């Protein structure tokens, strides 16, 4: 009986472990996996040269546990030694000279711009987009700062299905040509990322400090319950619209008046927006790494302004000293939805999802610009400073934000207009007559557009289980695959969120989940 009892206990323990190993990965990653993904996972597990490792991985979701070790953000490298003092000259930085590495590819062979290029110059960025551009608090202890996508490409090699494609020099001008390749296309770092090469940190792109605190004098966020239904509080369906679903008026507009002159709907900039800051552009908050601004017209006076921020490296968070979620290349974004030039709502990207709020809920600067926060390592966007737990209970996994260096992406950015309705037209028409879905704005008419259409990944493919840098516990990888680019962040969305069901907050709630 003694052995029967012990065997029964052992069986129960094994069943419990099996259930935990089966359920935890599904809780942490609720997305369904098709047959192709399951087959790919089986190949990943089979890459381990050790029989015991493969069995532990298959049966109790403990993969590569012999690889587990500390993964510090940096190795004590003194990055300041690599900086030239001249680079921080106040007069030079005050010029805010944008690097225009694309000039050589603009003019047609005839020496004249073609019709499409001339058309690009005509479309300006509305003045209200820069007036309400976000101010981003980067974390004070950040190790991986904003990066320039052009410089990022200089340190990457294109891989097709885990094999080097060729030695072609890829740039922002021709990156879209990689879409002709079959299979999975990724960019692979030329350096071992665990050696922490300087370009991965992008210390040169730390924003210039503000002389005056832009937070001073800002109005506090409105205090309203965030769970109330939008249709009961709003006068129109600005929060759920695109060109296929026009805005509907929910009440008589004469009862409320208008705080914005509709005649200004098509008012555009006729000068550099930075000139409003003084005779000489101010360097406060300037970073050498340009943000990417993509404007999407949803019709009926509704415009979504997507501010994309790129980082060469995403440092994952730690649980019990083990780090999860590292990947090369990191795209985050902040979207403002305007209606007739007035900001109405926002979306902040956080990991696979994000949060949405009405405009009045956000913290503002003294000039009325929204203030948002970038989490340390992951760069997830949040509306306030502090701890932001996600996925795991008891705050085991959390993002952290604070009032670190303030970045003003409005001072240096690549600006574009994107018409998602032309995507099908582009696919069906000939290359000679097609209308491009993405065109550069007038303040940077020569900006490249090919990179935007690149469908591959901006970082390394998930490392194999045989790689000494890799491990996976309960479905969570130490290193994951790099992200796709801005085009694939649901730019055609109807609602503020990327998903169909969207909970829009009227009040900042520190307990609110990024899955809401």
Short key terms for the protein model shown above:
alpha+beta, eight-stranded mixed β-sheet, 2 domains, 516 residues, single chain, globular
User: What is the overall pLDDT average?
Assistant: 80
Helix content: 10-25%
Strand proportion: 15-25%
Q: Strand order within the widest sheet?
A: 19-18-6-7-10-11-12-22
Quantity of strands, as a count:
22
Taking all Cα atoms into account, the compactness measure Rg is 25 Å
User: What structural category characterises the helix and strand content?
Assistant: alpha+beta
Contiguous low-pLDDT stretches (5 residues minimum) are: 85-121, 219-229, 253-282
Biased composition (Basic and acidic residues): 225-255
InterPro entries: Vps62
Region (Disordered): 188-262
Protein name: Vacuolar protein sorting-associated protein TDA6
List the helices and strands and how they pair.
Elements: H1 2-28, H2 35-46, H3 51-60, E1 62-63, H4 90-95, H5 115-121, H6 127-131, E2 135-137, H7 149-153, E3 156-160, E4 163-164, E5 185-189, H8 198-201, E6 291-299, E7 302-314, E8 317-319, E9 322-324, E10 327-339, E11 342-350, E12 353-358, E13 371-374, E14 381-382, E15 386-389, E16 398-401, E17 406-407, E18 413-418, H9 423-428, E19 438-440, E20 472-473, E21 476-477, E22 504-505
Parallel strand pairs: 2-13, 6-18, 12-22
Antiparallel strand pairs: 1-20, 2-17, 3-4, 3-5, 6-7, 7-10, 8-9, 10-11, 11-12, 13-14, 15-16, 18-19, 20-21
Pfam family, one: Vps62
Signal peptide: 1-23
Region (Disordered): 188-262
